[in-house]
Every structure is written in C-alpha cells, then in structure tokens.
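Ticket #4471: structure output looks truncated?

Reporter: J.K.
Steps to reproduce: submitted the chain below (241 residues) through the standard prediction queue, then opened the result file.
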Amino acid sequence: MVRSPARKLFPAFLLIVLATIVNPASAQTTIANIDQMTGWQSCSTCAGYGGTGPTSTLSMVQNLASPALDGRSVKFSVGGATPYANALWWKQLGRKDSAHNFVYDMYYYIKTPAAAQALEFDVNQTVGGKWYIFGTECVLKGTPHWDVYDPYNRRWVATSIPCKVPTAYKWNHVVLEFHRTTTAKNQFISVTINGVKSYFNKTYTPKAGSSNTLNVAYQMDMNKTATDYSTWVDKVSLKYW
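Returned output as attached by the reporter:
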C-alpha cells in the first residue's frame, strides 16, 4: 500500500502556508495532561466500522507511577477472543467553536508490539452542523504505514508515510497537526514520530454533526489472533487556536 517515499519535497509557497498554519500570530491555548483528567469515555463495538464492530474487553487505569514520564501515566488495555476487535477511549474537552488549528501531542509505551494491529490517534470537532474527524491510524501489520480518515465517505485512506513498529519497552512521541479550513474541510497537515516529521497533505469533506464540542481519542486494534495487550500513555496535550 506504500507507493512513494514518505519524505516529500514541497514548493516554497506550500511550506509558507504550512508555517503560517502551524505558527500563528494569534494566541494559542494548550490543554495539558489530558491523560490525568477524569471523565474519559470508552466503547468497543462503536470502534468498528459503522459503530457496529466486534466486542472486546477493555480497561483504563490512570495515575500509574511506572512506566511513566511524569509519574502519572494511564494504562489502556484491550482483550477478548474476537480477532480484529477494537477498543476506543475519548475525552470531551468542551465547546471550542473558534478553533481551526490543532496539535495533538502524546507519548505511548508498549511491551508487546506484535499484538497490535493498529493504533489510532484522533481529534474530533463538531461545529456549524459539521463533524470534523481528524482520524489518523498507525497500521502496524503488512507494510506499516499511516492511514488518514475520509469522514464524508467513511473510509480510511492509506498514505505513503511509514509508521515503524515501535520498539518494546520504549516511549514513542507522537505529534499530529490538523486544520479546519475556512472552506469547511478537514486538512491533515503532518505527523511527527520521535522527532521525524512527515507531511500528509490530505484534505477531505466532513460529515454532518449536530452538537458543538471538541475531543481527543485513542484507539487500540487487536490482531488476527486476538492477542490481549496494553499501552501506557503519558503527557497527552492538545494545542488549539
């Protein structure tokens, strides 16, 4: 599914546009330590296609001293007997209608990388009757790569950006940048993994939405043998403006 090198050269005018989006003159707001907040929600079946996927067992344990970077990590676990079952967690952050730019920043740690089919990192904003799903997925099986989500057509789109299988017992730093355009589109800007940045350069039409809210989400997908596994997540933040 990988068709071209992950690192792309962009025209100078495009780099200027991206720099303007990522480094605005306007004030930025950062919500830090989201992993330590109460009120997280979760589901298993809703994480599947059309919200009717297979059932998994899932759990979330917060404020763990180890492994942790700041002494208070969260442990997400998924299990069960059904291959390719998933588990999804999300945290509502309130109504942020004026926000057009988002930087989702987090660290994750895994002991058994082979057990994971994929890991998903999302930002969702609903505003003006539209649901902007900034869904990104690190696919770890086959040829590991990043997918982005086309919300209007309800499908994942493979990119040429590789997503290396993480090293066991090490922290991985993920930074994702998104933009809600003035023409009401989902724009996927970039992903940075452990300091290496690649550009998605993908734009899609959002789907209809009825509420006004902003949230971050994290999903774990099981492999074909339904191997139980856990990930530890720390220093989760969302910057927006």
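Triage note (M.O.): checked the attachment and the full token line is present. Residues 1-20 have pLDDT under 50 and may be disordered.
Status: closed, working as intended.
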